[in-house]
Specification:
3-stranded antiparallel beta sheet, about 35% helix, OB fold (Dihydrolipoamide Acetyltransferase, E2P), alpha+beta, 11 strands, 2 domains, 4 helices
Length: about 190
């Protein structure tokens, strides 16, 4: 309310300056309860419309589509994730995730041939997933080790991992030791 009163008086002062100094006409603003009430009502309506517009815009742009891990108390790792898709929350079992790839500020979950995008960094997501089940194999990829079908040598000392869904991802030299700790690879 103090903002609205200051706003109404400030606008009255600007009108007074405009009409008297620039246009050359007389202007008077009646400082009455009725007039201030009218100006206050306009501010409330404007504020409500602007707030509603921002909320609608955020919804349309998908800024609120953040995956929230469903974790149980006690710091245990989540077994399911809630992923927002088309205005609904879809529950994804962690065991169903084949692999994850980085995509800018998002992580793309590959789940049974379906792509689910969540707003999370790959590093953050890696910390939320079970390290005995998921391993980082590349700066842009995490894989579910239960989905690994084949590992073959690739160029420059890297390896290629083929998953059950047919996808192939690189196993870079940097992450090979961690991968081999969970899935022994014979050179």
């Amino acid at each position: 309310m103090p903002y609205s009163i200051l706003h109404a008086l400030g606008m009255a002062a600007l009108r007074l300056l405009w009409f008297n100094a620039i246009v050359g006409e007389a202007y008077s603003f009646p400082v009455t309860a009725e007039r201030l009430g009218y100006e206050f009502a306009k501010d409330v309506i404007s504020y409500a419309m602007l707030s509603g517009g921002v909320l609608i815009l955020e919804h349309l742009l998908g800024r609120k589509s953040v995956a929230a891990p469903v974790s149980s108390p006690g710091g245990t790792l989540p077994e399911r994730f809630a992923v927002r898709r088309r205005g609904r929350e879809i529950m994804v079992d962690v065991a169903d995730i084949d692999w994850v790839e980085a995509s800018g500020n998002y992580a793309v979950l590959h789940v049974g041939g379906e792509l689910l995008e969540i707003r999370s960094s790959l590093t953050k997501l890696e910390g939320e997933l079970d390290p005995k089940r998921f391993v980082r194999v590349h700066k842009s990829h995490l894989v579910n080790i239960a989905r690994v079908v084949e590992v073959t040598p690739w160029v420059s000392g890297d390896w290629r991992i083929r998953l059950q869904d047919g996808a192939e991802v690189n196993l870079s030299r940097r992450y090979r030791q961690r991968f081999e700790a969970l899935v022994p690879v014979k050179s």
